[in-house]
Write a sequence for this structure.
């Protein structure tokens, strides 16, 4: 299927799924999907569908040691067995899952104001319901919304985006087919306002001359994602206020 | 396998020129300022003000906009998704839902999760477990009783893991841990009732958090979002001898009628919580009154929830009263 003949960008400048090289997939975000969790969010980015739930800050679980000056961030990542085209048996210790969870945790340690929550722990659970490329980036976007829904103090939105580079063309927000082409896959997470990067990861190699273009496209993509996440969060806040718009302006 | 899914026009146009995007962001910020009945909704990273005369309150921080610190003053930035509140020069961002952060004097309901070292640990829906010291409970024999080593060994007889109690916040430690006490007849172990939990922000701070509802249900609204519902019982004999700890462990049957009332109140509170409405005695009673036309189990249906919460909202609105 992935022969070299496969054309990733047509002569008309369209990708396999009809997008332009610098176009994102359609993003739909819903905040607050669970009552039970402190915070939750569900994001569909194209066909990648990810559910993030946040519990905490709460007392540190037994296996971790509390830090006296800040909170521990704990992140777990699971891919549903039905998430990929071929059904996968669940594996107990998936190294790639641990790796991804560590990357997400690292990204949020730079954004969450952990020093406000000494001796506590914040749990982020990421569940992939459908996997179509860019999981790492979509996980970060979903976790951002879930953390905000949980009322956890953050410096800024953490927005992430992946960029591939096939035949010297940088492709924004690559899907599974483009990812499987074997080209470089750069995932960047930035603090949206200050444009500080909190995560830059790339597998496979990319020529240094191209890197600048690819990175810039990724950061532009993050900015576009930020506006979508921001409006989702404002919608959620408005909805809660509208539900509470009874007599209780003073106490809510 | 692949569906063609064009991205939304706003995001693609934003991609094409960065100047477009930034102007859209500014317009968006202006809109946010007046959204929702003039309330200022913010998300983390949003600039609240660039004026330097304001004080930094909870949920805000100063952010340096540009590299050279002399040119641009630090901006007051939001750290929560919520609404901005102003008290004179103090700016605060309040998140709409968050963990319980206690204040001294709050009534809370908690569940014992562990004990040791002369203290019980309680889950009180806060950032850290609450602690109840052996010295802050009333033991049988009156207030002036000395606490001996035997008392320490007998702690599990008094309260054990899984017990639900009501208590009051006695003090706050520097790391945010709440220290509780039950040195009043109002507080102590809870029996024969139903426990439920709602977001703590919904519980309105009132003079009284113990309510005997007209339908024969006693409701304890913990400010931490934990609620205890039980049948109202006569408390006459309790007040006779206030120096003795009341350890009423004799088995008491809750009537089927009281059980169904407890279930009804519980469903009403869940309905209020699902519509993010404030929970205090009046709203619960209003919701209960409106719920009487439904079966208890019908109160789980969205139509019934909408109806009873709309009723409670109309009555609780001070403008309408």
């Amino acid at each position: 299927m992935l022969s070299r003949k496969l054309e990733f960008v047509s002569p008309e400048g369209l990708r396999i799924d009809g997008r332009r090289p610098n176009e994102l997939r359609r993003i739909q975000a819903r905040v607050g999907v669970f009552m039970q969790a402190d915070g939750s969010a569900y994001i569909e980015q194209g066909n990648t569908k990810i559910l993030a739930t946040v519990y905490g800050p709460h007392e540190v679980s037994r296996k971790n040691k509390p830090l006296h000056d800040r909170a521990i961030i704990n992140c777990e990542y699971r891919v549903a067995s039905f998430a990929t085209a071929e059904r996968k048996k669940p594996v107990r210790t998936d190294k790639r899952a641990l790796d991804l969870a560590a990357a997400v945790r690292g990204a949020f340690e730079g954004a969450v104001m952990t020093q406000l929550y000494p001796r506590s722990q914040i749990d982020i659970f990421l569940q992939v319901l459908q996997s179509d490329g860019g999981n790492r980036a979509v996980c970060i976007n979903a976790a951002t919304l879930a953390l905000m829904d949980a009322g956890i103090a953050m410096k800024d939105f953490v927005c992430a985006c992946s960029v591939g580079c096939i035949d010297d063309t940088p492709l924004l927000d690559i899907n599974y087919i483009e990812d499987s082409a074997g080209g470089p896959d750069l995932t960047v997470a930035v603090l949206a306002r200050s444009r500080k990067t909190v995560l830059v990861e790339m597998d496979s190699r990319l020529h240094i001359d191209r890197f600048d273009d690819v990175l810039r496209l990724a950061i532009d993509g993050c900015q576009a994602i930020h506006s979508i996440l921001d409006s989702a969060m404002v919608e959620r806040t408005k909805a809660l206020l509208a539900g509470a718009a009874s007599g209780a302006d003073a106490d809510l | 396998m692949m569906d063609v899914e064009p991205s939304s026009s706003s995001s693609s146009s934003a991609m094409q020129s960065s100047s477009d995007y930034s102007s859209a962001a500014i317009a968006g910020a202006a809109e946010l300022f007046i959204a929702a009945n003039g309330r200022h909704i913010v998300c983390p990273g949003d600039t609240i003000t660039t004026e330097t005369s304001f004080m930094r309150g909870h949920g805000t921080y100063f952010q340096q906009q540009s590299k050279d610190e002399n040119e641009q003053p630090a901006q007051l930035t939001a750290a929560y998704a919520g609404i901005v509140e102003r008290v004179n020069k103090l700016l605060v961002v309040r998140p709409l839902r968050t963990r319980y952060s206690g204040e001294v004097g709050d009534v809370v309901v908690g569940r014992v999760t562990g004990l040791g070292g002369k203290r019980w640990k309680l889950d009180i829906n806060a950032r850290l477990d609450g602690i109840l010291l052996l010295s802050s409970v009333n033991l049988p024999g009156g207030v002036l009783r000395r606490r001996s080593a035997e008392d320490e060994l007998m702690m599990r007889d008094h309260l054990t893991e899984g017990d639900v109690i009501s208590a009051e916040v006695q003090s706050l430690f520097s790391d945010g841990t709440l220290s509780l006490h039950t040195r009043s007849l109002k507080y102590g172990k809870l029996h024969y009732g139903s426990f439920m939990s709602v977001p703590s922000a919904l519980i309105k701070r009132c003079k009284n958090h113990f309510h005997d509802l007209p339908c024969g249900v006693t409701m304890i609204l913990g400010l931490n979002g934990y609620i205890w519902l039980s049948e109202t019982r006569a408390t006459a004999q309790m007040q006779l001898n206030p120096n003795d700890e009341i350890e009423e462990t004799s088995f008491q049957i809750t009537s089927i009628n009281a059980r169904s009332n407890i279930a009804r109140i519980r469903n009403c509170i869940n309905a209020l919580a699902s519509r993010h409405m404030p929970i205090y005695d009046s709203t619960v009673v209003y919701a209960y009154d409106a719920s009487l036309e439904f079966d208890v189990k019908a109160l789980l249906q969205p139509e019934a929830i909408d109806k009873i919460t709309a009723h409670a909202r109309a009555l609780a609105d001070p403008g309408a009263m």
